[in-house]
Amino acid sequence: MERDIILERLEKKLAEKEKELEELRKMLSSNTIEELKKEIIRELEEKYNLKSLEAKLIELSKAIENIMSDILYIKSELKGSQSRKRDLVEIKEPEKSEEVTEEEDESELIIVD
């Protein structure tokens, strides 16, 4: 009888220790998985220089933004200059006496904006 009681106690302790061991295995596996993930990310960053690529991408994006704003500015200036076409107007002076020299006789052209 005493032997049966001791065996029961030992079986209970064994079952508890097995549960603890299973919990420890789960904890180790989750920690190991997290460490593996971090290591993989670190290796990928080193291999592909992700941080430097990201910095270059941001720099290129800003450069494109500046170029687009310059293009839009130039486009608006061109539209504005086209709307303000220059007209050539010929102004004739009243006829003078016959003593007028040839230089004074020519008509003047004035550009009006």
Q: What's the structural domain tally?
A: 2
Helix content: over 70%
* Biggest pleated-sheet summary: 2 strands, antiparallel
Fraction of residues in β-strands? 5-15%
How would you write the strand order of the largest sheet? Answer: 1-2
Indicate the low-confidence ranges by residue numbers. none
Number of strands: 2
Describe the global form: rod-shaped
Tally of alpha and pi helices: 3
Separation, N- and C-terminal Cα atoms: 121 Å
Mean pLDDT, nearest integer? 80
Structural class: mainly alpha
Radius of gyration: 46 Å
Order of helices and strands: HHEHE
Please tell me about this protein's structure.
It is a single chain. This protein is mainly alpha-helical. The chain folds into 2 domains: 19-48; 50-94 and 103-113. The protein is built from 3 helices and 2 strands; from the N terminus they run H-H-E-H-E. The protein has helices at 2-48, 50-83, 102-105; strands at 87-91, 108-112. It has a two-stranded antiparallel sheet. The model has no long low-confidence stretch (mean pLDDT 80).
